[in-house]
Amino acid sequence: MSSWDPYAITEDPNVTFIVPQEPSAWQRFKGQPFLFLALKLYDYRRIIPARPSKKPVSVVCISNTYYQSPKIPEGDILIHAGDLTPDGSLAFFQRTLNWLNEQPHPIKIVIGGMNDQLLDRTKGKGRGWDHGDYEKINWGDIVYLENSGTTIRAPNGRRLRIWGSPNSPIREGKLGFQYRPDDDFWYRKIPRSVDILVTHTPPYGHLDSRIGCYWLLHELWLNPPRLHVFGRAEENHGTEILQYDKLQKAMEYMIGREKGLKQFWEVLKGFVLSWWRPSTGPQTILVNACITGGYWNMSRRAPIKVVI
User: How far is Cα 241 from Cα 44, in angstroms, rounded to an integer?
Assistant: First the structure.
């Protein structure tokens, strides 16, 4: 796959780009001091790692690759959480699929994203539809999920249930797979006892730049998967562990609604409780797998590999 990068900053000496800088810690504190302190507490919460499986499976996670083709580490499962190209054209879409099919991972899972309009059959006359481009897609050995699930058998014989969806809260009407933010899109969609959940949108308040979905977060509380892989929020590449305890609940309420002193005390109480009596209940590993990201999409991140 070509290494050409259409987002690269031009080398023309007559063109000057002023790249915005991320706000400093002091600027973030001045803007919302109680939220800033609460997030710091949340970062230092105590976590008891989940008991490892007797048959561990390695999962390599990527998303929002656009024109990028990063080096992929070895693993049992390769997951792409959407936005395979920035324009949804068949040519670049197929090039990405060909690149994914070249990877040695025995199991490959792909969902679409907002920029993959070619896959959104609800748009009727999206990019390439008049030419029948959707029917021309060659998936190879890739498993494509669109509000659907599959059960796979890992190389070590372990069976895992995977469910995936390309949908996310609306940002621009011309993009694909979108729903209104006040629409409980996820109601009764995700099956019970899913091991790996793959969505393009993040859950609200977690690795999401506040563009994630509240209704999806609600579903995680009701039915926690072992692993949740997503993309879209390009500035928040990384991992987080959800423990579904009082601290997490207080933190989510503070992020979404009340950012004052009163709610900060609720977070503080949850922090103390989690330190002395850490949760031993269900845990979910969150992975924001965006490869392209940062201001102006200038950052290039490595794939994230987790073991479940």
Answer: 12
Show the CA angle centred on residue 40, arms to residues 37 and 46, nearest 5°: 130
- How far apart CA 274 and CA 261 sit, in angstroms, is 20
> Does residue 149 have a pLDDT over 50?
yes
56-245+283-307 maps to CATH 3.60.21.10: yes
- The pLDDT tens digits for 92-116 are 899 999 999 999 999 999 999 999 9
State the alpha helices, DSSP H only, in 59-151.
90-101
Enumerate the domain spans of the chain.
Answer: 56-245+283-307
Q: Residue 1 pLDDT more than 50?
A: no
Q: Residues 82-109, buried b or exposed e (16+ Cβ, 10 A)?
A: bbbbbebebebbbbbbebbeeeebebbb
Q: How confident is the model at residue 9 (pLDDT cuts 50, 70, 90)?
A: very low
> Which amino acid belongs to residue 164?
G
Q: Are 274 and 246 in contact (CB under 8 A)?
A: yes
